[in-house]
Every structure is written in structure tokens, then in C-alpha cells.
Protein 1
Amino acid sequence: MAKSFRKASRTVRKAGAAAKSGSSNSLNAAVVLLAILEFAFIYFDYNYAWTGVAARWASGLASLFIAGLVIQREKHFAGGYGMFLLSSKHGIAAIDEISQKHKTFWNEMAIWGFVLGFGLFAWPLLKGKISKKTYAFGFASLILIMLFVVPYMSLSLQFINLPQLQTAIAQQEASTAAHTGINYPGIVLDGSTFVFGFTGYVIVAIMYNAAKILYALSLFLVTVSAGHPQVSQLSGQVAGVAPVIPGIDLPLAAGVLALALMLIVHEFSHGILARNAKVKLKSIGLVILGVIPMGAFVEPEEKEVVKLDSMKQTKIFAAGISANFVAMLIFFVFVVLLFYYVLPYITHDVVVVAATMPGFPANGIVPIGSQITSWDGVHVSNIAQLEAIASKDRPGQTVAITTNTGSFSFVAKPLNSTSTLGLIGVDLEQESLVNSGTVAAALYFIYTFVSLSFLLNFLVGVVNLLPLPSLDGWRIYKTNFKNQKFVSALTAIVLIGLIVNIFPWFF
């Protein structure tokens, strides 16, 4: 009897284990399904949201928070608040192997990035610890990047889905094209970059934008005290701080790939320089928000790091920034090649109705977003062609246009009593659309991924130079500046500037 009972008990345990395994499989399937649904939600939130930027962020972040919370609790990952850690010892062996090869290159790369980060000021900081050749090469690289690489950032900024930012870029380009005077802010920004490197670049940019916002706020307060508040004084300002999250303000698939690659490049480089300094690595992994990778980490043995001399610590802290700058330059080459030699063959230009003017015949008749294909019977494919044809229109003349939403005829009106030009009241802009076909779509996806990788590596590199806790710059400052009161004061100033840069999102 007892024997039968023991056998039955084993049978029950096996059945329980099978049930548990089936439950685990169901749980894994549920997590995968949740991840798919979350990706689908943020994709549609990015591409088809009918709400404003703030509401899109709120809904996207809320969904990521909920998805992350469910996955973290069900899979028992470390983390909280919608974020969780995926850590492992896998990959440490690869870092060890890479660190043993080309040690000179990795060490020189870290110092090169330091010079990019601190410009002319890098020499007094590392005097006696850096070769003149590395210093000269780093400073020459800084000048060339500012002259020939940074101007191409506007190509990548088009993929950030922030209307305020896009408007500011368009206005800046128009202002630059028409401006013939001295660009004093540009001179100050470039001068700060050459003297203090990209640290000076990012700090001056933050403080300049903060000053503009505070000035607009003061004008707004004047209108409030006068009894007729004008929020437009603030709504025209561009926030200098924004979360860059794939599916919310970046294309989803290309954004996830670019972000993940950028994070891996950054953190692996920290690990390589740590192993070069004989520091043990505990683990490596990713920080996930919902289903989106938002960070990566290589966890060294901190007690071993603090025992190193200041130069070895500086190399470890600067390694991630340096690697991001190297990756930025590699992707820059591909961006330029694709832009000039591939993009013209896979896209075509269209003229789109951006708005209609009240008081003119087309207002409320021609749908916003319509593509104009002909004007006065002549085929048009870009703004220059259309403007040349429309310049012949006179008040009282019938203007016929053809769009993808229909054909229309209007009697043109003058802008004012002295105008000899006839207008129908459409505000137009030129857009590039991807040609139909799998090859064109695939090539444009590659261009999107390369452009985002170019931009994100630059942004993460310069932002990590800021003297803020948890950033690499903070540890670089703490290690290389003797006057810690200066570091604390600079940290406070930058933090206040960042807070001010958030203000425009509330208006």
C-alpha cells in the first residue's frame, strides 16, 4: 500500500511539473503577444495619432509603462516603474577577447574622444599624460567635424517626429539663406566648441536656448500684467529637452535598431577599456522600457575602478563617448553616400497643400495635404516649377489646379489693392515621397536606420559629456578637476538650464 502511494506521489509530481511547464509556455506566449501588441500600438501612435505631441507621448509612455510592469512582474526581472534589466554574463568573454587585440588603438581612441569632448582645454587637463600627436589629431578632428559633419545633422533630424523642432529647423534654414549679417550666436557656439570641445558645444546650446525661453517668458508675464496674456510668446519656443523613444517620436523599427546598436557600441567600449585596465566585469545587459531598449550597461567591479590612477579611470569613462564619435563618423559616410547617390533614385518630389488662407477662394475647398500635380494645365513636381507658372496669374483670372483629391477652378484675388499677382489662397510645401516597390522601401529603411544611427551616436556622445550624475561626464569631471566646488556649481547651472528647456512643452 505504501509502495503504491509513493508511486502515485511521483506521478502527481510529474503531472504538476508538466502543468507548470505548460503554464510557463503559456506565460511566454502571453508575454510575446503583449510585446507584439505594444509594438503595434506605438507604431500607430507614431504614424496615425490624431492628438498633439504631448498626448502622443503620454499615451505612448503609459502603454510602455504598463507593458514593462507586466513583463517585469511576470518574468521576475529586476527593475520597476515599467523598466527592467536583462543582464547576463554572456558577452563578457567577447569583450575580453576584443580588449586583448589592438590595445594601443583602444587607448588612443579613448584619449582622442576626450580631446573632442574638451577641445583646447583638454591639454591642461591631461598635461604630461597625453602625447602632442594625439592632442593635435583630436583637435584637428574637432574642427573638421564642426565644419563638415555637424551641418549634415539636419538630414537626420527630419526623422524626429516633433512638429516644433521641424518648424524651427525650417525657419532656421530660411533665416540662414536670407541672412547676410554676422551670426553672433553661431560664432559664440563655434568658439566655445573649439576652446572647450563638445562639452562647451552642448552646455552653450542648452544655456542659449534657456535664455531664449526665459526672455519669452518675461514677455509673456508683461502681457499678463497688462491684462491681455499672449501665450504665443511661449508657444513659439522650442523645448531643448525631449525623450527620444522609437515609436513615439522616432520611426519604430529603424529607431529600435539604431538605439540598440548605439547603446551596445557605447557600453562595450567601457567594458573593453575596463578589461584593458585589468578590471573585472560582473555582467552586461540592456535596460528595457516596456519593450524598447532605453539603455545598456557593462557592470565593472567598482572597487577595482576607484583604485586605478586618474588616467586609467578617465580612459574608461571616456571610452563610450569616444566610441559613439567613431560610430558617428562611420555612419556619416554612409549618410552622405546614400543621400547623394541612392535617395534621388528611390524618391520623388511632390507639392503639398500645407494650409489655405482665409478670405481666398481655395480656403475650405482644397483639402489640407492634397498633392498638386498640375497648375494652369501644366504638370508640376516641385515648388520651383509651380511658382514659375503661378507668377503669371493675375487678379480675376481663372486658375485651374489638379490634385490627388480632385480638380478645382478658382478666380484669383489680389493680396491687397496694389498687388498685380492673383492668388487662390494655398500655402504650399515640397515633400519627398518614397517610390513604390520593395527595393525602394528597403533602401529607404536602410537610409533611415543609417541617418538615425548617425544622429543618435552624436547626441549620446555630447549629452554624456554633461557634468550630471549618472552620466560619463560627471565622473570625468570628478576625476580630472581639482576644484570640486566649480564642478558642483557647473552641475547646478546645467541642471537649471535643462529644467528651463522643458517649459515649452507646457504651452
Note: The radius of gyration is 28 Å.
Protein 2
Amino acid sequence: MIKKIPSLIDMHIHLREPGFTNKETVETGLKAAIKGGFGAVLAMPNTNPVNDDVEVTKFILKKGLPFKNEIDLYPVSAITYGLNENAELVNFSEMKKAGCIAFSNDGLPVQNKEKFKAALMKGELILSHLEDETNEAISQIETFREVLNLSKKGECPIPKLHFCHISKKSTIEVIKKAKDEGLKITAETAPHYFTLTKKDIDKTGRFKMNPPLGDIEDRKAVIEAVKNGVIDVIATDHAPHTKEEKLKPYNEAPNGIVGLETAFSLSYMRFGLDLTLEKMVYAPSKILGIKPKKEIQVDLGAIYIVRGKNFESKCKITPYEGKILKGKIL
């Protein structure tokens, strides 16, 4: 059955350019996103140089211009210069004016409480990559509360906090408790956390990402959290590497898998169309204050086999190689 749907929004991808064009470029990443049904993507700042400067933002946006009719590219700024939590905060107003939609230190989270507090006090959307996932969530929610109280006194704008790539049952419980108390925080997961577990891991880096895959109880908790709204968004955390890197022994391989070209099907097969659109279009649209780019067509009945060699992404290594999926973006 062919159906028109709004183009998807991905709050969390890595385009690798500038600096790591052997892994991905803005061009190949956006082509992968378009093929996957996305009309808007947020590109993380862990590039080289880091996106902590207006000129880097301008460079990324210029690279995306040839695709402007198909997809909107939103750079994410670093929170601190060089992604160094001990460095100064970037110039938030200048980075936003240049085109950055949110702020994140990516896989180098700001664990310095005062620095994280200062970032939240800017009133801009902070995308928090939790590494020591549950403990950092506890700490950051406590800091969020403090800043929220300051904002109620008129001392700063209302803070905005979004948790990236949630994977663990214990973290979900922490976020649920905070939401039940009325805290307006948001959270995302990625398809690999509701389709795979650590039992799927092989000897290579094909299944290696951070946070790592959990056990079956974690996977069940993620599924339930998507259904009950504790998790607001499904993002991909598309993080490409070279074939040579991903096929190294597991302990030597870098973290990160590709996801743009399989995310819709994996989500649709697990949650159905309505909930998939809520998590991949409407919720991120509301959080970010942007509208879906356009309408796209999807064949909900189409069944296909995942073949990494056919990906638009430079990275052809996928944990879903050979898997049979349903629901194809046309």
C-alpha cells in the first residue's frame, strides 16, 4: 500500500565533515538521509575542526546547499570550545544566528556541573549525549531543576534539555520519574536499542556503538518507553566509519553504526505507522520548532533485504545486513 507521509526529522546524526571525509561527507550523508525519507537532520559538532565557530557552521551549511530543495540541514553547535568541558562556553547567540539549532558536546558530555548549569541558563536546546548514561541523567536532571527554579525567579530563560540515545531500563526509570514530577525534559532512543541486544554482537565492530547494546530487559524497557511517551523521539545516531574500522575486532573498532537508510522500516515494523510518525516527525517538529519539509511516499507493504553495498552512505557496514525489512521509502 503506497501512502503519503510527512518527511521525517532526525535529531541526531554525524556527517563527519569537516575533517573525516573518509567516513562520510555532507553530500553522502544527506543523500543517505533523503533516501531514508528524512527532510531535516541535525548534524552533531564532533568534526575537525569542531563546530564551535561561525565559520565552521557556514562551511557545513554551504555544503548542504545543493540539497536545499530536498532536505533541511541544521548544524548543532558545541557547548564549549573544542568540546572541552573545561573550556569556555561558545558564543551561543552568534552560533544560533549563524544557523545552529541546538547545542551539544556530543560524546564528550559536560560533567562539570557549573559549566552545564551555565549552558542550561542560556535557554537554548541542549542535546545531552549521556555516556555514563543513568548516573549522568540523575545529575543533569538535578541541575535542570536548579536552573528551572532560577528561571521562575526571572534570573534566566527557561532551560531546554533533551537526552540523546537512551538505551537502559535504569535511565528510563530516572526520566519517567522526572517527567511524572512535571519536568519538561525530552528524550530519544535509536532503532538499534529496540531491535538488538548484546546477544547479537559478533567478533567485529559491526554492532559496536555507545551506549552499547543492552540486555533483553533494556530492549523491552525502551519499547515500552516509546509506547508510553517516556521516550519522545526516535533518532538514528547515524555514525559512519570506514569499512576497515568497523570490521576490526570488536574491542578495537570505533563506536557508531549507520542508521539513516533503515530507521523508518525498523520503527514501522515495531510500532506501526501512527506511532512511528509521532516519534520521527511530530515530536521532533514540536521540540525543535520546525515543520516537516514536504510529503514523501512510502510503500508500507514493500518487503526488502538490507544490503549495505546499496547504501548512499559511505559506510556500507550495517548490523542489519541481510535482514528482511518492511515499509520502503519511495
Note: The chain has a mean pLDDT of 97.
Protein 3
Amino acid sequence: MRVLIIGTSWPPETFLLRLFNGLSTKGLQLTLACQTKPESVTQNHKNFTFIRTFSWNCPLYIRIPIFLYLCVKNILCKPKSGYHLIQVIRQSFNPKEFYRQLYIHLPFCGTDHDVIYFPWNAAAIAHQALFAIGIPVIISCRGAQVNIAPHNPRRSALRQGLHDTLPLASAVHCVSKHIKQEAMHFGLPSDRTYIINPAIDPELFFPLETIPKHNEFTIISVGSLIWRKGYEYALQAIKILVNQGIPVRYEIIGTGPESERIFFTIQDLELKNYVHVSGPLPPEAVVSRLQHADAFLLASLSEGISNAALEAMACALPVVSTDCGGMRETIGQKSGSILVPVRNPVAMARALAHLYEEPIQRLEMGKAARTYVINHHTLEKQINAFTHMLRLAIQVKNKY
């Protein structure tokens, strides 16, 4: 099975890289479309190939030679496919958009893959013309591009794009039941929808055999420094713990556009001695931090299902998570974790204080969390489900 993957940069997000590697080990032939060639992957894995794409947002003196090169390579050398692509774009887009759309789609002219996979809704929307070339298309619905961005009045193009693309997909992957319900508002075909939860590798994320001892109650969060991760509410919860006299240390791993605001909040709450923002760390360092922590805090306002929370659970950490998105489908008593209301630092602090005051119960919850992840969120299960979905999608005729 030959799969064309469009909409990733290189390197992709860790959870996507795990998925791609897993699919390749199943014998699927993956072609990655991105602007930077993934040399190490395409050289070391016989099941990976590469198609180079080009950004429209480059200077005109660079864009014109690229456009001419793409026309020669993909239209003159593949006249039948090139003519069909031109006709599709002409019928689907207004004249002002014609050349930009042709520029974006030309690298895929004449593709003979069995299925096209878009890991993100925005990528599917940006390449709508490919829905008309007769190859089955699969789209992933993961979170913010379905349950947040479409409600922004300035993102009307995305909202319309969801309505345009979801009904045409041969299959749609949703990371949770909640995301499926959200996507139903945009024409999601329920009969072609597959709920496949995020997964982790329990052999990569694992607890230490010897439980680390330290004087501080160590709490950790991992995720981009963006508003929907709710870090200001997490910091307020930490302030409550400090005021209660709990010897707490809170580490945030990640980077993003909200870093300055988060640093200001730390300063305003006088938490400089209790909070450390580590920035981005390599995977092995993240695992080490999780292994030496006492609890994981997810204060998000929106999630599909948090990969970071699953990784923490695999390291035998109890998780305190907000009741957002699909987290209720994972977090609960059976999973050794605690669910609290969104935007409620008091509830977060109460749950964290309980974990601090009950160390034996905290360890038992951590063990239960790892067991739950192994039973429900292993990479092997995810890869098998994805492979099954891909094969079924090929059997569904595209209804463009």
C-alpha cells in the first residue's frame, strides 16, 4: 500500500513520527511531502520516499523560477495529468487563486499512490483539488482545528474548508469521541469515521525501578506555551499550594508564543523560586524529567486527547487533568488520574494537595495509570487500527 502524506514539516511532531515509523514497519510505502528533505529517514528506511513542496510565501524572483520548473516537470512531462489538474483548479477556484493553487498542487501532478493522508485538517483544506484526482483521501481531526479555530470569526475560510473537505473524505480519523462530535457540525460522515486514540511506546516511556526521593513535591507539565494549555490557571494552582506550605516545585517543558506572558505571570505571583520553565527538551530528557516527578498537571482549555498526559501515565505518574475535549475518555479512577473542571485552579490545587498528602495512594495511582496506558493506548494497537482504516478507505470510492 502506497501512502502519500501531505501537511507535515520535517521533523514532524513526535507522535506523528511514531505513527509513520510504525506504518513503515508494517510494510506500507510512505511518501512524505514537505519542504525539507528528511535525509536520515529516506536513506535509512526503504519504505520512505520524499516529494519536495515549495512555499508560496517566498520572494517573487524565487517563486517564478520554481513555478516554471514545476510546470515543465509536471505538466509538459505529464500532459494528461497536468491538463486534468488545471481543469479541476479552474473549476474550483476563482481566477485570482488559480496560479497560487496550481503552484501548491503541481508537485502532486500524476501521483499514483493508493491513498492520500492529511494528518491535519488545514492541510486537507489547502489541497482541496487533490480530492478530484480519484485517489482515496483520509483526514485526521485532532483538536484545535476542529473545536476552537472554526469558532473564530476571522477563520471563516477554515470553517468553510471543513464543510468542503470532510464530506468528501473516504475516511476520517478522530482522536476521540469528543472530536468526532465536534466535527459532526461540519459535515463529518459518521459512517466513514474511525476513532483511533493517541498512543505511546511504553518501552520508551517507563518508570524507574527505584522510586526517586526528594524533599520537594515535584509537578510537571509538558506542552507548547500557548493560551489553550491554560498555564495561567496551573500557576494559580501552584500559588495556592505554596500558600498552604506545601514544598512544591513546578516544571514546565515547552516553548511557544505565550512564553513572555507566562514569565510575567510567574513574576506577578511571586513564584520565581517554585517554577522553572525548561523550554524544549529532547525526548530522552523529557522521559527523565517525568521519571523523577511526583505528578503531572494538564490545565488545558481544549484537547483532543493529550499525548503528553499519556506519556506521563506510562511513566507511572498520576495525572491531574482538566475536563476538556476528549480527556474524560482517558482520565478517571480506572486510569489512576484525577479530572477537574476547566479554569478552576482551586480544584487543581485540591487534587494536587491530595496527591502530596497521600504518597502511598499516589504511587498506586501511578501504577494504575501505566497499566491503563498499556491496555488502551499502545502504539501497536494504534498502528493496527490505522492500517485497517487505510485499507478500508481504498475500498471507498471518492465521491467528489
Note: The longest helix spans residues 359-376.
Protein 4
Amino acid sequence: MTLRILNLEPEGYSPEARRILQTCGSVTDGPLDRAALLAALPHVDVLLVRFAHRIDREIFDVAPRLKAIVTAATGTDHIDAATAEERGVRVLSLKGETEFLERVPATAEHTWALLLALLRRLLAAAASVQAGRWERDAFRGNDLAGKHLGLVGVGRIGRIVAGYGLAFGMQVGGYDPAPAKRVDGMRYFETLNELLAWSQVLSLHVPLEPATMGLIGAAELAALPSGAWLVNTSRGAVLDEAALLAALESGHLAGAALDVLTDEATRMRGAPHPLVEYARTHNNLIITPHIGGATVESMAMTEVFMAEKLKAFLSE
């Protein structure tokens, strides 16, 4: 029987990765809405996903043939891992693929783009010009040089961001209970609270797991110096979003830039998200739609890698 592979989000998919998948079985492309996905799944052996769908128990209940779920991501919180294990479905991801991921800079570069856009007020300035104005003095920003950049998590992405900070003349510090590698010129803090009290700019680079759920809440935000900035390109649930909104509204935080939100795939389809609503009328909050890893080069690299990983899994 021919293996049936459903690529749920094929837009811009790497041609090389597609050729590899076609050696594994018959490939069908989405996109599909939820109802169409549920109708298709009884005939699917392998499901390729990005982040548009949450792969929950309902998905597994209608997919008796499912052998593997493939996601070119380091985080798998969009997949019900417990149900996958219960049903004997292998979740193939980039988690733990450290050697390969060292060559993928996209999320670190996006972190820096968000930071520059936030401190230099780039979005508001560009929108002003598009509206026919030329108001140079209205968009005075802030320098990065000399400021304290605090990194929560000094893994692969955190280390790259640390290098950017040092290149920009920042003082760089980090907190990580077990850093795999150290960055020359970077200060390491023994506790998270010590890092927070020191950081004028805080950037989050931790995986989402039980120990990091809500890691940065009201108390942690209050520990930051008044007028600090925050960037999150890790996972939405690492940050207490209600506490962030309160810190922005009070003026304790000068601004924030986010590439991720909690339950982003479903929350954006329901009632208006409080942070998105705030960003509509305030220039000190930037939100992008989880595009940290979404560059042509990085996505092609990861898609080829995951196609090869699937091929190896199927040959076990």
C-alpha cells in the first residue's frame, strides 16, 4: 500500500524537500480548513504541519493510519505530544538537532530586527511617511550601544543574539541554569532575578516546557528597571500576557516586541486579543505572526532536513 503524506501548509515549500517526500510516498498538498482536514485524515499516514493548526486529540481520533507528524520547528506545543505517544505516532521535529540548527540564523536575526524596530520606532515612522508627513523630531528613538541586554536562555539562538549585542556595543548578560556553551565577553548571572534587575533590554530564548510556562510574569516584569524593553521570539506561553499588557499600560515597560502569542493559532480566530488591540493604538508594542524562522533560506534548509529525517524514520 502506498504511503499517503499530507502536507498541510505547502506554500513556498522547498522543491528539493518535495522530491525527497515523493520518494517516500504519495504527497497531497493542503491547505485545508479544520473540517476538510478531519475528513481527509482517515486516509493519511504522515502529516506535515507548520503552525496554522493545533494537532489535538480530535485529530488523532480520526487518523487511525497516522504513523508520523513532521514539523520543521524546535517547539512542538502545537502538537498534543501525550496523545501522539499514546497512539504510537512519532513526532519528528528539529528539537535536539543542535548541530544542524547552528547553521539556521533566522530567528536570531528576527529578534534583532524587532529590537531595532522597537527602539528606533521604525514602524510608526514609516507609517507617518506613508500618510504624507515628514516628522523627523516626532520619532526620536534610543541607542542600543552601552545598554544592558539580558538574555533569558543562552542556547543556540541566545548565543547568536549575544553576539549581535556585543557587535552593537551593548553590555550583554544572560541567565541559563545549564548553558551548553559560553560566549566570550558575556556576563552570566546566577539567578533570574539578578539578571532582571540588571537588564534594560530583555530578550527571551527558552523552550516551552513545564518549567518555563509563565516564566516571566508580573513579579519578573516588575523586577526590570523602569523604562526597560522586552522582546519575545521563543513561545507565547513563556510570558504572562496579561502582566505584559499591564506593564505597558502603566508605563513601567517602555515597549515590547513579540513574534509569538499564547495559543496563537486559535486565539487569533476568536475574540480580539488584548495585546493585538493595544498594538492597534500604541506604537510601543510590535507583534509579528510567528515569522522568526520564516526566511526563504532557513525554511528550505529545515524542510529538506525534515524530509530526510522522515525518510530515515520510515526505513527503520
Note: The radius of gyration is 21 Å.
